[in-house]
Design a protein that fits this description.
By secondary structure, the protein is of the alpha+beta class. The chain folds into 4 domains: about 1-115, no CATH class; about 135-225, Beta-Lactamase (2-Layer Sandwich), CATH 3.30.450; about 230-300, Helix Hairpins, CATH 1.10.287.130; about 305-455, Heat Shock Protein 90 (2-Layer Sandwich), CATH 3.30.565.10. It is built from 13 helices and 12 strands. The radius of gyration is 48 Å and the shape is elongated.
Length: about 475
Amino acid sequence: MTRKVFTKLLGLFVLLLAFHTAVMEIVFRRMAERSAGETLSRIGAEALWSGIIALLVALPVAAWVAVGIMNRLRRVVDFARRIAEGDLEARLERSNSGELAEMESALNQTAVRLGQNFAELENGRQELAAMLDSMQEAVVAVTAEGHVRWSNSVMQRMAGMQVRVGRPLAHSMRDPDLLACIKSALETGEVRSGRASSLAPGRIFEVNAAPLPSGGALAVLHDVTRIEAAERSRRDFIANVSHELRTPLTSIQGYVDTLLEEPRPNPETGREFLGVIQKSARRMNRLTEDLLALAGVESPDYKLALQPTRARALLDDAIESLGGIVADAGLELESAGAPDAQVLADPDAMNQVFGNLIENAIKYGRAGGKLRLGARNVEDTVEFWVQDFGPGVASEHIERIFERFYRVDKARSREMGGTGLGLAIVQHIVQAHGGTVRAESELGSGATFFFTLPRAQSGLTPMQGA
């Protein structure tokens, strides 16, 4: 293209020389016609003026052509500068013809392709960022020097505003296990795994760090707090079940061995031993039933036959069906009344809830002489309660009283045949109804257990719910 522009300028110069020669030829001919005897000075003067006239005509034309080329080249330079600054929308005005027009067209096409490629890269980056932000795991990318290159929203929420691009990761997250895992991945170029337990209070993270092809490393943090808690709960549950079963089994085995060793046991002693064996067997049977009931209500397949039921009817049914047990224990059962509102409940499941709460009250509130049941409206729910007037529960036990196998008085509970699962079953059934459960107590003033059930909407028909 440069050669073509140079050729055009050279051709223009040749044309100017030809124009000058033609002017000189015309002048000399006129001079010859007018007088052949004019002096040589006259001829030289006219030749000089003819040359000046030719130059005066040629220079503006050459300047006009040069200015046009310079303006087009200046537009090309401005276009290149705008592209370099990131303005991919910049375009050159296309000329009608000429070699520069071809260059302008080619530059415009290049800018269009650059814009398309940049848009594709930006869309890909945004899609990747959205995908990483939607992950439940925290993700952070660091440079080879350990500076933050990028982090997703989960990591930013977990670490706050401390995780910033360009800032050393060690200044933002001071967990030694996490930093050691990332450092090992950077140094070895291999995937490394570890655990971090000091990033957030009470949370445990599984860390996987992998080197990046462009340098640096990518760390993914998976929250395994619930998994760890579930595993710990499973171990505790197995240990508690084993302990609860071992105690009556040991008792049964000991008394049976004693009876077998006596060829002719005393009838009274034998009857006493058989009574102990029967008591231990009943305790094992009760524990087995409660374990099955707890497994049932904790199962994802647990279903409730929910139907609109009046709160007063639920309370009356509980008093009628469980009043005999309370009377046999030497206690008086009082009703504090219930509103006429309808709740969404499974009557059979509610009978089990009242049964477990009343049995618990009988065991620990016997000294009070009576139990009281009642219900009241609380916003869009109905709150039921079972109150005893026994020794009460210390405040440090209230938060854990609904845990499996948790007992306030372990010796007394085992003596009375408690399994430590009744309140846990109550909690799961109430939560399956969409309600809540809690306890209040003061030492020496008894304890009250509350649970709520959502009110049934008017016109609601019986349904199945989970």
